[in-house]
């Protein structure tokens, strides 16, 4: 067991360094996935992304940590990888393929709802405060303003069905993240590698079922998509996911979930500046409302 696992008070500089990496890097991966899936379908793209990243992480873990994980540790890492990578991340890639990347990031911003609810139901048993519940209601109101299903269809250039899949992916992501503290996990780098490889295998299986012609798209891949793929592997996966994996062991759940209201700001800006995605006044208002709600969700009342 590593020092990171048993330490109750991790170094604040290290904590905020990893948290900042997740804030910025993961905010940029939404546009990266949007570009990378222009040709290659999302599940096959995710499978290749995490196969390469997981293999690199596994080799680094073998060289640096020199710890052979036990069977229980492998199973624990596989479960977390299935929830975070296999379901959570690939559902996000699917949603980004059909919807504007910045708006997908805004939906994911509501992930603290799942953290709070699942933590209350299955982990800490800590009942949400009135402030948290108020934040949840405000955040949901903002999402309704943005994706109002009763609005005329001609006002919207994308389908709404990916939102349901994305919501399921967010729930699995939160459940997997919260489970880490209750499971016997391998050393951090090895754990991240096993999680990515498990997610890659799952994505290959799903791709074979629902993307029958996916492999044929590889012959049409562009340099633009390749560049986005390399960025997702080296920066989004190796740096971003490793940082998040460390945070799941060392950061309080409420602090960990705060990345959800920084990511959409980065994603919305990059989607507008680089991806040429439209930002209406209504979308900006909804963004402010959702993020305001998420801030309330993640604030903890100070004891007198």
UniProtKB/TrEMBL annotation:
Membrane-topology annotation of the record: Multi-pass membrane protein
Cellular compartments annotated: Membrane
Record's keyword terms, sorted: Membrane, Transmembrane, Transmembrane helix
Keyword Nucleotidyltransferase: no
Residue stretches spanning the membrane: 15-33, 39-62, 74-96, 102-123, 130-147, 159-180, 192-210, 226-247, 259-275, 281-299
Record-annotated EamA domain positions: 20-147, 162-298
InterPro entries with a match to the protein in the record: AA-Vitamin_Transporters, EamA_dom, EmrE-like
Key word Transmembrane present: yes
Protein's UniProt name: EamA family transporter
UniProt organism field: Chitinophaga rhizophila
């Amino acid at each position: 067991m590593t020092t990171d696992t048993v330490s109750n008070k991790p170094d604040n500089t290290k904590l905020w360094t990893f948290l900042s990496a997740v804030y910025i890097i993961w905010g940029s991966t939404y546009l990266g996935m949007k570009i990378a899936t222009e040709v290659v379908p999302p599940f096959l793209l995710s499978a290749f992304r995490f196969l390469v990243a997981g293999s690199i992480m596994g080799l680094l873990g073998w060289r640096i940590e020199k710890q052979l994980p036990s069977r229980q540790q492998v199973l624990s890492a596989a479960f977390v990888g299935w929830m975070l990578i296999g379901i959570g991340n690939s559902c996000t890639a699917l949603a980004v393929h059909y919807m504007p990347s910045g708006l997908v990031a805004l939906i994911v911003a509501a992930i603290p709802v799942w953290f709070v609810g699942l933590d209350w139901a299955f982990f800490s048993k800590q009942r949400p405060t009135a402030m948290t519940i108020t934040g949840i209601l405000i955040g949901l109101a903002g999402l309704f303003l943005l994706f109002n299903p009763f609005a005329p269809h001609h006002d919207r250039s994308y389908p709404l069905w990916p939102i349901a899949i994305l919501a399921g992916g967010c729930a699995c992501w939160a459940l997997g993240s919260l489970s880490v503290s209750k499971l016997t996990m391998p050393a951090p780098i090895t754990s991240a590698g096993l999680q990515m490889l498990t997610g890659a295998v799952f994505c290959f299986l799903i791709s074979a079922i629902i993307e029958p012609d996916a492999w044929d798209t590889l012959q049409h891949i562009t340099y633009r998509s390749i560049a986005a793929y390399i960025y997702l592997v080296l920066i989004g996966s190796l740096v971003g996911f490793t940082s998040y994996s460390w945070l799941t062991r060392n950061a309080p759940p409420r602090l960990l979930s705060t990345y959800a209201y920084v990511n959409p700001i980065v994603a919305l800006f990059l989607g507008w500046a680089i991806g040429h995605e439209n930002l209406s006044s209504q979308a900006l208002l909804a963004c402010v409302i959702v993020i305001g709600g998420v801030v309330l969700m993640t604030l903890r009342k100070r004891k007198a």
